[in-house]
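explain this chain.
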Amino acid sequence: MKGIYGANEGSAIGVVKGIQESGKTGVVVVDAIDGKSLPKTVDTGYFWYDKTNIDQPEIQAVLYKVRP
């Protein structure tokens, strides 16, 4: 595994707990703290949507539909 990301406090705590419960040990290096260059963006697979793109097929494909 190369890394885990928690987008908010709850996610970050869950990540830490999961690692602790897994019993895995080792060295953890945070590239940003070590001064290493980081990618400008990271593709998370998520889409940002609003009224300007809500009707695009790639957005519609990931939305929940309410059944009548």
Remarks:
- The radius of gyration is 18 Å.
- Helices lie at 9-22, 57-60.
- The first helix runs from residue 9 to 22.
- DSSP finds two helices and no strands in the chain.
